Each structure stands twice: as C-alpha cells, then as structure tokens.
C-alpha cells in the first residue's frame, strides 16, 4: 500500500482555456481530463489524500487517489466510524463531480430577464463587488434581515457566518421543513431530544427493525445501510411498511403494503395491541413515562379491527407484528425515517413512532436508540453577531409553535407577502430550491420580488438558472471545509482537504464567504489569514494536531457509554422531565396531546397518489450530471402497478406523461410496469426531469416529482410541508 | 494452485450498484460499458413477492467457452488463481468469445480488444480484494480460494444453500449466490 498523505499538497496546472468544456464521449474520465490538460505532465505516481465525502450530507471519511496527477478514485477511509472503509455508490462515483463537463466554471452575471439563463462571465472581483453593492443597498432600504440564506450541508458554514455577521437571522435549510423537521419535533415533544443526523438508531444491534416508508438500500445513507445489511445477515426480524415493495421490503419477514397516508392508524393499532395484551415494557414506562394512563385511555378504541379498513392491513398481521416487536424488545427499533414530510400530520406521526418506541423501551437501549457522543472542539472566537430587533421572518407570531428551526417556506412566504417584513435578497448555497421546495411556481413568484438572488453551487441547477449572479464553487475534492465534529456512536473529528485543484475558476466556499465579507466591511469577522490557520486554531483548542489530521483524515476520541445499560443517565428534557405519553404542552397549544388519526383526502377518481423517493446512485437533484452516476442511472421511471398498466395498455419502457390535479404535466417518463407497487399510487425517484440548460447531460431526462408537487399540507405544529398529497393521471406518449 | 471464486449473499445485497461504480473507477472502464452489473429478479404477485438481487460479472468458469473458442490464445486461464483473462495485445477483436459467453460478460473495448472482469487480479496479487468486494457497503461479497476448504468462501458454500447461473451450460461457473 502506498502511504497516505505522505506527500505534500502540490499545485497543478489548471486546465487551459476556461471555455473548453471536457467532451463527454469515449475514454475514461481520467483520460479525458488528461487530454484536456493538453497531455502535459504534472505529476507522476500515486498519491493518496484522506478527506470526507460531500455527495450527500452524511460526511463519510474517504481516501482519494491521484494517479499521475489525475484524480483516479475515491474509497472509504478504514479509520472512519461512519464509512468503515466503504463508501456508497454515490461516494465511489464522487470523482465524477470533479470531471463533470456541466460544472460551473466562472462567475456568471445575468444579462437578460430572470430565468432565461443568459449570462456574462465576470471576474470574482466584479461578481462579489456587485453582490456586496446590492446587499448594502437592500440593507439601507430594508435592513439586513431582508437578506435570507438557504443553505445545505457543512459547506454552508462560512457563508452562514458572513450572512449572520451582516446582520440577518434568516438562515434556513430545506432539511427542516421539507425533510426531517417533523420527525425531530415529534421526538423532541416525546423524549425531549431529537433523532439527529446521523440518526442515533442502533440498527446493527436491533433484533427487530421496523421501517415505515423508510427505504434503506435505495436511500443510501451509508452507515445505516451497512448496519441494515448486518442486521439482515444476523437474522433480525425486519418489518417493512410501504405502499411499494421496496428493496428493504424484499428483506423483510413481514411486508405490510399499507394504503398511503394511513400510517398513524397502523401505529395506533400497534400501540393498542401492546397495551391491551400487556406486552409493553411496563417497568420502563413506569420509571420514565408521564401520562401513560391518559394515553392508554385515548388509544383504547383503536384496535387492529378498527385500523384494518383504513390501512388495508389485516388485524392478525397487525397483532402478529406487534407481538414480534414485543418479543425482541428492547432491541426493537421502529425507525423514525428521515424524509418525513408526507401528509401534513407528520410531527404527530413521528410522535406516534416515538411513543411506540417508548412502549418497547428502546430509547436509550442497545438495539434501539443510543445516546450519541462527540468531541469538544471549541468554536472559533469570533466577535458576536449583530442582534436583530425584528427577529426571523419565517414564523410570525409563532404560528407554528413547535418549529425550532427556520422554515424555508416561511421565508418564501415572507418574500411573497412582504410580511412580517420584506425579504429582498436570497443567497442560495448548495440547494436546488426549485426541486427542494413544494410548488415551484410559488418559488418563482417569490423570486420576482427579490432585488438580489445569488446562487453558490458546483453545477448550474434550476435555481441557479433564476439567479442574478451565480458563483461557481470548487467541489469537495478541491477544497478545505469546516471540520466535521461528529455526533455519533463514538467521538471523532474529520477533515475535508483538497485532493486536486479546481479545473477552472471555481473557488472554495470559505474563500467566497471571506472575500464577500471583505467587500462588506466585515473583515473583523474573518481574523484568520487562510483556512488552514482557522482549522489549526480550532483543533489546537481541542488539543488536536492539524498536521496529524491532514495525514489521517480522522482522529477518534475515547469511546464512551452510549446506552442506559452502560451507565448513561436517563434524562428526558421535556416539560415533565419524563417521556411524554401525554403531552400537556401540545394540549395547551391546542393540539392533540396523544396522536390521532385523520383519514387523508383521496384524489380524483382515476388518479394515483404520487409518491417519490431515492435511488442509491443519486443525491437529491444534484448528481444527475455526474458522468459516472449518470451512467448508472440516466433517468427515472414511473412505477405503475402491472394490472393498472395493462388496463392502460402500457408496458415496460412505454413513455407516459404524468398530469397532476392542477393540470401540470411532466416530461415524458418511462413506465416500469411492476408487481411491486399498490394500484392506488405511482412512484418516481426524486431529482430528475431537469430543465436548466446548464445541466446539459441531465436536461429533459425523466420526470420531476417536484414539478408535480403543486399542493402541500402544512404541518400545524412546525410548518413542515407534506408533499405526498398530489395525484396524477397517466397521459399518453412522448 | 488456487482456484479463485466468489460467494455473494443475496440476502444482504441491496443492489446499490456500488460494485459497478467501483469497478468503473478502479479499472477505467470506458463510458457505455460495464464489467459487472446488477440483476433484479422478481417472482410472485403483489403483495406476495420475492426479489433476488444479484451482482453479476464474468464467472471465471472452470470450463470457459471463451477460452476454447479464442483463435489467437488471447483468452486464457491465468496461472494465478485460474482467473480467466484476455491478453489485449494478442486479441484481434473477432468477438468469438463475446458470442460464446452464456453470461454476456464480455464486450469489445473501444480500443478493439475483448474486455471483461479480471477479478481485479492487479489488486489480488497485492493481497487486496477485488474492487467490487472491497467497496460493498453491505459486505455481501466473499472472495477466495474455492480449493481451500478453510477459506471463507468455501466455508460459506459448505454451510449455506446457494446456486450458480446457468448450471446446465457446462461452464462450471465460479460465482455462487447464497440464498
């Protein structure tokens, strides 16, 4: 084996001629880049650099290999507790992000109306000067709060810092109101703590794993999939609840093909069975529970027989699966999922999942939910941010009383209405809002009210297409980033560091954030001379060596107890200090103190509920132009029950368009006529159907679920947007 | 002499294609071609379904038709582990081997020679696992010497029900799928 990080970082020749795009046919990506280099020798031999991945937000430790100066491959770092030496297919294909010929190459300024994607290439100085000028003007007219930042992932750290230093509290991410928000709120209301990311789920030690709509194996969060496979291999009982026969369902002992939108009915019937048959963990509930009697009384009517007509799951199956959960408790994990914004009652559904886990005694227990640990790495000592007197704009009057993060769609609404105060500038980092937020027309209308829309990204996503100024970011393989101080089973820190140079005029986010701060007169907030000084300073504060971290990529701390049975003190920071089977704070706010089921509205006759999810080879709408991942999956298909397909005269590979209840029609998409889905819904993988002309490789390939999500149900507890409330018909042809 | 083969646990495999991607980057497999691939085989009717997911590639057969049909000797059984390989300098790209392979494991490389899985012999000779095995996040792939009764592969095959592909073809494939 070659030594890791044994060679110092070198500078490479940049690709000559920023306009010369890398051709996308024939030859390996490495060869192509080699040709783009003009065949000039830059470096000989093999060089390996530890870093961590950014193809999704999981942050797996990795080792990148450079062969004769050209990026070759990237593999898991065996020292990394998250990847355990193995990346997922997206991570393995991550080298394609560096070579992607659809990458943004230079800063762009809009030269016609918004959305036309007509650009002038400018220098960084011009671009950042224009951004700073517009920001100052907005600040003078509307205050600094009138600029909002939409961010995603660890790469947004430094831009957040600049925007907060500028004086805005409106920093948000779709990860809350369009993803895991309801789950974390539901668990918080119950246990006083969130599930977090990476999820504190002890899948590898579970003897019974319940997945409700969670399609691990397609949803490729690396550690979870590794542990899922380990649990399957060890013979754990898998119970999968999904309208679609997912990959996970194919591993299950019990597959419950539930009618979409009825999960709370099933959860209530499971809890009813555990309580009625006295199978729950009585000792645990007695010691740690609050309001159990009131809870038990509330769920009494909700028998498996009651749930059957709602869910389509037979009473005996409900009972048998509940008994199986009880047999394996406390090593029974009812997985809380991640993308939980489905029907608008999602925080209550998540609370029901939390309560089911509480009955099984799995919170804090081996095979259930562990108590995560992290290293203490002090924050960099920056000056305090200016305080906003107006507060955030996303949730005026605390309309969503249990929202504990900023609501993206609340910022969008404030932009549309000017209330509680006008939002005039959007900064968007690494998040394609057109695909991430429901109802793209609302997003586009909001954009019309902006004086400034800046997008920082690696590729020219749809939201970049609407921007005034687009700033091209270096990929994760070409930059330093904030240290990952992970909260996980064991404490560790990880470093992202440059492996190769960016191929054109792309810049790391930290550089962009600092240069912009300089132009805004906020130099005091960036006292460090470069990122290496910043990172070294933070690590020294924790008694860690930057040089050692550069060599190893990962530094692990001492293992600590993570289960109650290992000595973790059971604490529940809820109002009662206990697990809240009955929630007084929900009752006081006018909500159900114990989750209740409400039958979801059905679609028009002859329509199918539109469901969407993940494929293992793509992340969101951000990887479809990656040449390697594109080759693995170039477009999505619409899963249609085979009997339905036959009725429509459709067979595998036929093209249809999906038309939703509001008349929105998708791109043509191939039919996957399959036994593996219910007849009342259809399913597509999220992230396809691109419309940005800058995404040449992905343009027009497959259908966009986001485009069809014109309706959404807002969660009254926390403002999440339930998106599985749209219905489509199958329309003929290309 | 070792006889290298694989056992792949279909219970653990999720069909994520990481093996395909890893092969691609490790071996610079050109765009439009793959040396390994995933096959999903559904059985039954909704909702009582079964799915077998298989990571497939050259079976490095004990009786390889691609070797016996090769007019130049380019297709050969390598002394190291009895791995079936192609000497690209000897290959004239006649496609006889491509046609002869019942597993459709071969393709003609844009540079004109027959190409396919090598079991990553360049890695195995250094004591590493093939790239597909090393990357697999589900750890469902096992690689080793089928002639060594103590190897993990041999032990798994001795203890678990398994099948190979087209067992009736007379090729004696060396990739086995654990059920």
Walk me through what this model shows.
The complex is a heterodimer of chains A (734) and B (179). With 734 residues, chain A is α/β, with parallel strands linked by helices. Chain A contains 24 helices and 27 strands. In chain A, strands 5-4-15-14-13-6-7 form a 7-stranded mixed β-sheet. In chain A, helix 4 (124-142) crosses helix 18 (509-519), helix 6 (174-191) crosses helix 13 (346-360) and helix 14 crosses helix 16 (440-448). Chain A is globular, with a radius of gyration of 25 Å. The relative contact order of chain A is 0.16. Chain B is of the alpha+beta class and 179 residues long. Helices cover 20% and strands 26% of the residues of chain B. Chain B has 6 helices and 10 strands, in the order βαββαββαββααβαββ. In chain B, strands 8-1-10-9 form a 4-stranded mixed β-sheet. In chain B, strands 2-3 form a two-stranded antiparallel ribbon. A two-stranded antiparallel sheet of chain B has the order 4-5.
